[in-house]
Amino acid sequence: MRIPFIAGNWKMFKTVHEAVVFVKELKSVVKDVADVEIVVAPPFTAVHAVAEAARNSNIGVAAQDLYWEREGAFTGEVSAPMIKEAGAEYVIIGHSERRRLFGETDATVNRKIVAAIGANLASIVCVGESLEERERDETLAVLDRQIKDGLDRLTAEQVADLVIAYEPVWAIGTGRNATAAQAGEAHAHIRTRLRQWFGGDAADHCHVIYGGSVKPDNIRELIAEPDVDGALVGGASLDVRGFGDIVNKSRQAAV
Ligand code: PGA
Q: What is the pLDDT confidence band of residue 253, given thresholds at 50, 70 and 90?
């Protein structure tokens, strides 16, 4: 059984101080929630402090990216073992902003997932089509390519432990979320491909979450779709009450 998975992607927001204040408040807002996996993804600078503040709570910590080498002359990069040691258990990989602004490809996504697995970090792997691709009716083909190449050579057990975030690029930060029907179609397609390519156990175990303008007032209808297992929340995760509200509503909608 997949319990809802709600992750807040803070992007390049929050200082260490702001991040710690947020987590301390979030802890009290969600203290009774045992049936939702709750994760926050601060910038690298705040990962360790957030992990310390969240210790022994029901809040997990994710980094927003990693580099696939363990160590070396790679100025500005951060490796999977470093992230793990800082206290994170998850890492976001292949966010569309990384793909669009920083040249990431399905091949680099694949290398990063392999590095995350090597350091025992769970990957939240982002996929999703641009507006032009949707208008050309290429959504499902784009998802096929991103999944096939991004998850290339992973075992069924490794895929079972992934979180895949379907994030249509046109819905990110635009206030225009996918409709429940659009999300439902994409998620069902992803699940079908996981079943075909990695088997039933992997497909049943893997969380497929939705991202793109998720808010307290649309989470219920999105998560009511049978293959939508949670959400990756950007803008609305920056406000502790709003994020707590999304967590609580996902919980009620899932029962
Ligand atoms: P948004 O971002 O909720 O602000 O649309 C989602 C994301 O980029 O993960």
A: low
CATH code, domain with 162? 3.20.20.70
Quick: pLDDT tens for 217-239: 999 999 999 999 999 999 999 99
Q: Which among 190, 183, 241 is positioned nearest to 215, based on CA atoms?
A: 241
Q: What are 203-215's pLDDT values in tens digits?
A: 999 999 999 999 9
How close is the Cα of 237 to the center of ligand 1, in Å? Answer: 9
Containing structural domain, residue 161 = 5-254
Give the pLDDT of residue 251.
Answer: 87
State yes or no: pLDDT of 161 exceeds 70.
Answer: yes
Question: Whose CA is closest to atom 1 on ligand 1?
Answer: 234
Report how far apart, in Å, the C-alpha atoms of 107 and of each of 65, 114, 207 are.
Answer: 15, 11, 22
Closest CA to 11 of 112, 77, 101: 101
187 part of the active site: no
- Is there an atom of ligand 1 within 6 Å of 139 CB? no
At residue 156, the pLDDT reads: 98
Give catalytic status of residue 95 as yes or no: yes
C-beta of 234 in contact with ligand 1 (< 6 A) = yes
Contact 64, 84 (CB under 8 A): no
How many domains does the chain contain in total?
A: 1
- Mapped onto helix, strand or coil, the DSSP state of residue 29 is helix
* Average pLDDT value for the chain: 97
d(C-alpha 198, C-alpha 151), whole Å: 10
